[in-house]
Write a structure and sequence with these properties.
- It is a single chain.
- By secondary structure, the chain is of the alpha+beta class.
- The protein folds into two domains: 37 residues, no CATH class; 131 residues, GTP Cyclohydrolase I, domain 2.
- 39% of the residues lie in helices and 26% in strands.
């Protein structure tokens, strides 16, 4: 259990009062510590080391064809409203003598999703991390998500979905590889 900071817990109690409720009523007495634990969990990526996430997952190899991991589910917190956005990441790359363990790709998505975030930055961070770590010929990341800040407040568009994509060429890659990666990623389907 995370260390409970009395000032933070008092702040959450004050927030409950500002919302018109009594933080001393029996059903809310444990809410401040639950909220703090929940927020710490949802933002754990801000405190974890990327090196630990990647540890033991990088391999040298001669494989030079497309690697695609689809439908990596994630949950993140919108930094503007502190409401969740939930979705799936589809990550593809064309290696150039370095490959990454498949579970590490999912862990990279989780690492960058588990923080106060916007979807556009999340997509870019995953692509740039893979580009830096693997130095592949090409990388593509497509993320589709539903945002509670759009669905339950503001414009209240319950069926809306946001899709972002980032495409990167590595040092040895060419435009034809990037185009092939795009076509294969799209052809494989990026929707569940």
């Amino acid at each position: 259990m995370a260390l409970l900071d009395p000032q933070v817990l008092d702040g959450i109690r004050t927030l409950l009062e500002a919302l018109g409720d009594d933080p001393n009523r029996p059903d809310l007495q444990a809410t401040p510590s639950r909220v703090l634990d929940s927020l710490r969990y949802l933002t754990r990526g801000q405190r974890e080391s990327l090196e630990e996430v990647l540890e033991g997952g990088l391999f040298e190899g001669d494989y030079r064809d497309l690697v695609l991991v689809r439908d990596i589910e994630f949950a993140s917190l919108c930094e503007h409203h502190l409401l969740p956005f939930l979705g799936h990441a589809h990550v593809a790359y064309v290696p150039d003598r370095r490959i990454l363990g498949l579970s590490k790709i999912a862990r990279i998505v989780d690492h960058f999703a588990a923080r106060l975030q916007v979807q556009e930055r999340l997509t870019t961070q995953v692509a740039e991390c893979l580009t830096e770590v693997l130095r592949p010929r090409a990388v593509g990341v497509v993320i589709s998500a539903t945002h509670l800040c759009m669905q339950i407040r503001g414009v209240r568009k319950a069926d809306s979905e946001v899709t972002t994509s980032v495409w990167r060429l590595g040092p040895q890659g060419g435009p034809e590889e990037l185009e092939r990666l795009r076509q294969e990623l799209v052809a494989s389907g990026t929707r569940r």
